[in-house]
């Protein structure tokens, strides 16, 4: 008598990313109730299970769902790859990003987040850390639900300067609490305390935000030091570099995921490792914005020191593609190039950064990041029959990282539900959003950066 299961996924190779990094030839993943109930051979699974649906088959590799640890879901998407790439950061921000953001209604926030999450999902991303540029978190939550993938929800929080959504410490905290509350009924979406970071938070705010995250048993994320500006600002204000100052405030710990931490010094590397702070590295954004990752690639020191790192894609005008496999390839290349040592950082390590090690950075390694019994059924089926895959490499992970990217992703399962089939999002039809997205894009272009377009 065979057990009924919701779904059986067959991979010519199943790349489990479990502790032994086991790969199973002609493997199968059985899924029931949104969870993985077996990771075994196809022959064994066929004997044991009666599935309602099947996925995969010959010519596929099956990998865990990918993790995007830093993604702006609103603000940039509707100006995707449109902010000219010959502008200084301040000019891009003042003339394009801020006016665009100010024009965003709730409808546009939902449209923006939906488009970003569809792109991520079709490239295999099943869990996204929202970077916190959200004016309407309920609409971003609606986008997560519609696309069917998991992630974090956070409100834009800052209490320095006069940008949009600046508030007092109490106002910012109240918005944070409201976002945390919104997510409580959604098992795949987690409320995270989310600040802008940089030098746009008072000591009082960051300390209170850290306390709130700990009290609510969740996590805190913010930006620090993608460029040299944050260190200059902190040194001028506090006499200390950013991470040394935050350590002195007592806000560093394993509950914190910092985006970037590119321009840090030796002592800050030590501080991050000593406090078990996680870091989201967004290598394409640093290249696209000229932020100097090739001069200060501390992330490989953090990895070698046993630190917790994950990969992010940042925003659609800072790295642009929401493709974690592309980010993993670049990261691996940067490690090899910056050390001059080709023996360092294999494709398997890069895939781990996009999966199980990324999950560890998010404090979610018991839930996502590998194909193991009991975990959330976040599974990606990669098509290994196209030109990129002919002939198929002996180890598909090397092909996946060095020769392929998200375009090889065929089907995606998130929490046991098929959210992408044959490259198309099943929850929402992209074509139904395209006309509206194009019209909004034209309107935003006409009101932003009129004098600074690329000609
Ligand atoms: Zn960011």
Whole-number count of domains: 2
Please state the oligomeric state of the protein chains shown.
single chain
CATH topology (fold) name of the largest domain:
TIM Barrel
Beta-strand content estimate = 15-25%
CATH class designation of the largest domain: Alpha Beta
Q: What's the rounded overall pLDDT mean? A: 95
Computed structural class: alpha/beta
Bound molecules: zinc ion
Helix coverage percent: 25-40%
Overview of the molecule:
The structure is a single chain. With 455 residues, this protein is of the alpha/beta class. The chain folds into two domains: 3-64 and 379-414, Urease, subunit C, domain 1; 66-114 and 126-361, TIM Barrel. The chain is 38% helix and 23% strand. The protein has 16 helices and 17 strands. The protein has helices at residues 42-48, 89-102, 106-122, 137-147, 169-183, 203-215, 229-238, 242-249, 266-274, 283-288, 299-304, 324-339, 347-354, 356-361, 396-403, 430-447; strands at 3-15, 23-32, 35-41, 49-64, 66-71, 125-130, 150-153, 189-191, 193-197, 220-224, 256-260, 278-281, 308-311, 379-383, 409-414, 417-421, 424-425. The strands form three sheets. The chain has an eight-stranded mixed β-sheet, with helices on one face. A five-stranded parallel β-sheet has the order 9-10-11-12-13. Strands 5-6-7-8 form a four-stranded parallel β-sheet. A hairpin with a 2-residue loop joins strand 15 (409-414) and strand 16 (417-421). Helix 3 crosses helix 16, helix 5 (169-183) packs parallel to helix 6 and helix 8 packs parallel to helix 9. The relative contact order is 0.16. The model has no long low-confidence stretch (mean pLDDT 95). The structure holds zinc ion. Zinc ion binds at residues 70, 72, 131, 223, 259, 314.
